[in-house]
Specification:
about 200 residues; alpha/beta; four-stranded parallel β-sheet; elongated; 10 helices
């Protein structure tokens, strides 16, 4: 992974860590905007680390990498707050593509991960989607979906044929209900609850 990134001029490696605890120390010292986490850490569960990173800074972007990927690993990574998952044996261009995608505010799932995993993951998301939709009004659900895809208040207002102030009110209510503060927070929440699909990104 280090060798792959060293050849990229657009990215600078601020620190390297051999364990989860060492990684947390590096994050405290360097305050990175992007962190790559190995799914197989020697000391702590990788999803625990991801959750800790996101709790410390909700704007930090986390890309998970691993071998022998299972649907459970992928689901747990995204639910913990990761914005992408890429296979450890992927080509350098795939890693860069994953990082570029995540930095643009989108979620990423490696093409090398089997279609079977994507299918099973979609089934898991449908269950969460049904549970989540019951907790929002139809209009809140619509606004949430548009916010998660990156539309502005003005664009959402035009799409739903309502005033921007109405959309702002719905957004404020959603932020209070969901406990999110940024556009990235909306994207993460929407993904965890199956409101946006991998193929849409």
């Amino acid at each position: 992974m280090k060798a792959k990134l060293k050849r990229e001029q657009n990215y600078f490696i601020a620190a390297l860590a051999a364990s989860g605890e060492e990684g947390l120390a590096c994050v405290r010292d360097t305050s990175p905007s992007f962190v790559i986490v190995d799914s197989d850490l020697p000391d702590i569960d990788s999803t625990v680390l991801v959750r800790e990173l996101v709790c410390r800074d909700e704007n930090v972007l986390v890309l998970m990498t691993g071998e022998n990927v299972q649907v459970g690993n992928v689901a747990e990574a995204f639910e913990a707050g990761a914005s992408g998952f890429v296979g450890k044996m992927s080509k350098p261009c795939e890693l860069v593509r994953a990082m570029d995608t995540v930095l643009r505010g989108n979620l990423y799932l490696d093409d090398a991960i089997s279609h079977g995993i994507k299918r099973d993951f979609s089934i898991c998301k449908k269950v969460r989607r049904n549970l989540f939709c019951n907790s929002l009004t139809p209009r809140e659900h619509e606004v949430m979906q548009h916010l998660a895809t990156g539309l502005t208040v003005q664009e959402i207002a035009a799409e739903l044929f309502v005033s921007p102030r109405t959309v702002e009110n719905h957004r404020s209510n959603l932020m209070r209900k969901l406990g999110v503060k940024t556009p990235l927070g909306f994207i993460r929440f929407a993904y965890r609850h199956g409101l946006i699909d991998l193929d849409e990104n």
